[in-house]
């Protein structure tokens, strides 16, 4: 069974994208480097899809962000509103 981890960015409407990784079960850290460094650790379960929402916040010099794990229903909805980001960028 595959385990998928998706990072969904819905905050910037001009570039609405998601990243998708196939990962081994276990703990994985995702980091978003903006004005701050937001981090979240996901305990990936085999055969389950995990979704992380990147919330973009106003910053002093550039946007900041927060990362939240969301349920599958909310995550799937977010992915359908986005395009998959290109690998490596």
Describe the secondary-structure layout.
Layout: E1 4-9, E2 17-22, E3 26-33, E4 37-44, E5 49-57, E6 64-70, H1 72-80, E7 83-84
Parallel strand pairs: 1-5, 2-7
Antiparallel strand pairs: 1-2, 3-4, 5-6
Characteristic key phrases:
7 strands, 89 residues, 10% helix, two-stranded antiparallel sheet, 52% strand, mainly beta, five-stranded mixed beta sheet
Walk me through the structure:
By secondary structure, this protein is mainly β. It has one domain. 10% of the residues lie in helices and 52% in strands. It is built from 1 helix and 7 strands, in the order ββββββαβ. The strands form 2 sheets. Strands 6-5-1-2-7 form a 5-stranded mixed β-sheet, covered by helices on one side. It has a two-stranded antiparallel sheet with strand order 3-4. A hairpin with a 7-residue loop joins β1 and β2. The radius of gyration is 13 Å and the shape is globular. About 7% of the residues have low confidence.
Specify the number of helices: 1
Question: What share of the residues does DSSP label as strand, in percent?
Answer: over 45%
Q: Unreliable stretches, pLDDT < 50, 5 or more residues?
A: 9-14
Q: In which order are the strands of the major sheet placed?
A: 6-5-1-2-7
Name the overall outline: globular
Q: Average pLDDT, to the nearest integer?
A: 75
Q: Work out the radius of gyration.
A: 13 Å
From the N-terminal CA to the C-terminal CA, the straight-line distance is 27 Å
Number of domains: 1
The overall strand count is 7
Q: Which sheet architecture does the biggest sheet show? A: 5 strands, mixed
Helix content: 10-25%
Helix-strand pattern = EEEEEEHE
What oligomeric state do these chains adopt? single chain
Task: Give the class from helix and strand content and strand pairing.
Answer: mainly beta
């Amino acid at each position: 069974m595959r385990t998928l981890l998706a990072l969904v960015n819905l905050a910037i409407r001009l570039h609405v994208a998601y990243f998708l990784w196939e990962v081994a079960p276990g703990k994985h850290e995702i980091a978003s480097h903006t004005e701050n460094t937001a981090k979240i650790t996901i305990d990936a379960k085999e055969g389950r899809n995990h979704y992380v929402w990147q919330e973009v916040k106003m910053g002093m010099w550039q946007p900041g962000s927060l990362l939240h794990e969301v349920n599958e229903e909310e995550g799937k909805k977010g992915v359908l509103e986005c395009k998959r980001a290109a690998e490596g960028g």
